[in-house]
Amino acid sequence: MLDPTSIPKTAGAYQMALRLSGEVTLQVGALGTFCFPAGRYIYTGSALGGLRARLSRHLRQQKKLRWHIDYLLQHATVEDIRLFPTHERIECALNRQVLALPHARVVARGFGSSDCRCLTHLVYLGQDTGAPMRNGML
Fold first, then answer.
1. pTM score > 0.85 for this model?
2. Among the listed residues 91, 61, 39, the one whose alpha carbon sits nearest the alpha carbon of residue 99
3. How many other C-beta atoms are found inside a 10 Å radius of the C-beta of residue 45?
């Protein structure tokens, strides 16, 4: 698990590489109910108030469910996190790069993207051989 104290306090964007070991159907707050297939996902988010604060919260097990990703993190494993320190809003551009990958799929329209025009900020990449995603996960 990533040590939250190693995360810079600066503003930025981030991408979390997630693995879901089995299919799960979740009620994601007011967004709705979705079936999340087992496999690999990339979630892209922003932390303009600080990367350490946002990601430390995401990595905590005990928390009030607030953001869409909180619901999925109850079931998924965080395998890696890429950080993009910046004061610019770049998460949508980063997300478009992930959506352009072969086999990328939207499984929960509106997930993590209620404040922009993106279809989703959670991209399903399918299943794989089980090797964890690490640095350069994209």
1. yes
2. 91
3. 23
Residue 28: pLDDT band with limits 50, 70, 90: very high
Q: If we measure between CA atoms, which residue out of 52, 45, 53 comes closest to residue 90?
A: 45
111 contacts 121 by C-beta, under 8 angstroms: yes
Q: What is the pLDDT of residue 138?
A: 47
114 and 28 in contact (C-beta within 8 Å)?
Answer: no
Enumerate the domain spans of the chain.
4-126
Query: Per-residue pLDDT averaged across 61-70, rounded?
Result: 91
Res 133: pLDDT: 56
Torsion over CA: 48, 53, 15, 45 (sign): negative
In 3-state terms the chain splits into helix, strand, coil percentages (rounded to 5) of: 20, 30, 45
Q: Tell me what pLDDT residue 34 has.
A: 98
Sign of CA dihedral 92, 41, 70, 135: negative
Count of CA atoms in the C-beta half-sphere (13 A) of 49: 5
Cβ-contact 108, 34 below 8 angstroms: yes
Residues 81-108, mean pLDDT to the nearest whole number = 95
